[in-house]
Amino acid sequence: MNGNEEELNKSVGINAAGNGGTQPSLPTSAMYQLDIVLKKGNSLAIRDRGGTSDPYVKFKIAGKEVFRSKIIHKNLNPVWDERVCLIVDNLQEPLYIKVFDYDFGLQDDFMGSAYLYLDSLELQRSLDVQLDLQDPQCPDQDLGSLELVVTLFPRSTEDREALRHAVRLIWQIYQNLRLSDLYRKSQLWRGIVSIRLIEGRNLIPMDQNGLSDPYVKFKLGPQKYKSKTIPKTLNPQWREQFDLHLYDEEGGILEISVWDKDIGMRDDFIGQCQLDLSKLSREKTHKLELELEEDKGMLVLLVTLTATVTVSISDLSVNLLDDPHERQQIIKRYSPLRSFFNLKDVGMVQVKILRAEGLMAADVTGKSDPFCIAELCNDRLQTHTVYKTLNPEWNKVFTFNVKDIHAVLEITVYDEDRDRSADFLGKVAIPLLNIRNSEQKAYVLKNKELTRPTKGVIFLEADVIFNAVKASLRTFVPPEQKYIEEEAKVSKQMLQQNFNRVKRCVLFLINTGSYINSCFQWESPRRSLCAFLIFVVVVWNFEIYMVPLSLLLLLTWNYFLLASGKEPREGSVVSVFMDCTYDKMNSKKGFLDKFYAVQDVIITVQNALDEVACFGERVKNTFNWSVPFLSWLAITVLCAGATLIYFIPLRFIVLVWGINKFTKKLRDPYNIENNELLDFLSRVPSDIQLVQYKDLKAETSQSPSKKRRNNPG
């Protein structure tokens, strides 16, 4: 009996043990059927900042989970009305009931627990039970209660045999189901909600100065988005744009809450409102003025619903790109002739998650229950779980829509653990521009920070088809932000690392200035004489087109250096990061204790150092050909800029630029400001990202199959 069958037996409440490794074995002692109706909860604990919770219930017997209820969102008095039938053989083992608050992407919060003692139940009599929830750490705390209807029946030997036969039939049916179909409804989205957060009006003051520092939180199902904070205002102007996914064909409820940012204290709740997306028409932009509850202000939004399906899950036997006709249709869809149709549809990527070898053992049995999650920005798909193995085979095909060719495909392997959150086994990050079509490749798994290898390799095959013109145009608009990211934490190691990165960039500028200054000081007469002649010639003949032309020459020079093999693409900085090892547990505790009072300030400084370092490294990596696509794009833009400036007088260009700047607000009142140069540089990887995206060479020790071939005895 494999792991999937064991999971099925758990779901019907049987403590199955292997009989020769193939059949479920039922106990020989007395057996009982326990019928439970989970009715509702009363006055459950608050675990979310909005004053509510997203509760669900787990049933356990003898440490094994036998039932998990559905999640009721935003409700402290949830009604489940779920029925479950359990088979128990020992009434001395109580039914352990635990309630949790569901948090997408985070560890679920504990809301209380209770015991139902089975030996106290009467046979064949329905009993209404109300269980008070408690926290063992705080037994006096009121956490609410659960209402159940419980009935206990005796089971005979004949019933036992019939149940064994029923389990066998259920397993055969279950085995024929495709797991991708089971996951499809919960993972594949049916459309996009494009939201522009414009402004707030007449928000209530929360600070002593009569103002607030407002920001807005959005939640649509499991997706969350948090806006930037606008300081000291009651009429904030956000002008942010983001997209959420529609998993429900009818729409769904968009939950919106407004908060006041308080440094060093808990943020204050200003107000909330809801938007029923099912009432909005598709393919049309709606300007909405939403009143917060209890007249606490107003929010102005622009909302557009687009009905589309852009992600899919299939098996290797159902693969679009393997069909020559379908592949040709997709290539035609993204051909240069269609470059100006639907600019947001840049391309598509298909990744085959084949198998993994030599994974880390996460269970006490020396095995793992691995599954994979593939993420492309905010698109997230999951394979099924392969139980009790270190060499799983998934053979799944995931298809994603590409909105930004500079996005990174992340494949993460986890170990499933029903009683706790999944254990991390390894991760790889693959920039879409680094993918070679139809090439099956073994990727060495890395740690969570993507800086060091961990145990195991994963075999992937990917194809990317995109329109280069659309991809180039999308490079100059703001990149899509992730809805769910790990919360920023104070890290002494990260602070030191970012400081060193900034220090390297500053030292480079200082050394360059010292070199130029040495020419003025005539430390080397020959070098100073050459510099003087160049300066005179350039100043005398200077034209503005020489600025992009000189940058073009720098790009060309570095390209030929790279082509000749004289300079590695990553540079010497990469080896510095590869050699870094962090001992977080030893230094984090004391650092947090020391700087807890100024935690937000430290995080701000830490992120500022990271931004400065990334900016300098990205400028450098543009000219180092770290991403050839971007370097070629830079060459194209620089050539166009040089030609434009050469043939058109500068005064006309400046005039057009000024008129455009002054009239942009009049032409589009809701236009979102952006800087094309910074948007371009945001696509260039920094030095630390180059380390994360670098392929590691697989060692022979990573593959158990190679070990067996090398050691036939």
From TrEMBL:
Stretches assigned to the C2 domain: 18-131, 173-290, 324-445
Membrane topology term: Multi-pass membrane protein
BP GO terms, sorted: regulation of neurotransmitter secretion
Cellular localisation: Membrane
GO terms of molecular function: calcium ion binding
Main location: membrane
PANTHER family linked to this entry: C2 DOMAIN-CONTAINING PROTEIN, DYSFERLIN-RELATED
Protein name, UniProt field: Multiple C2 domains, transmembrane 1b
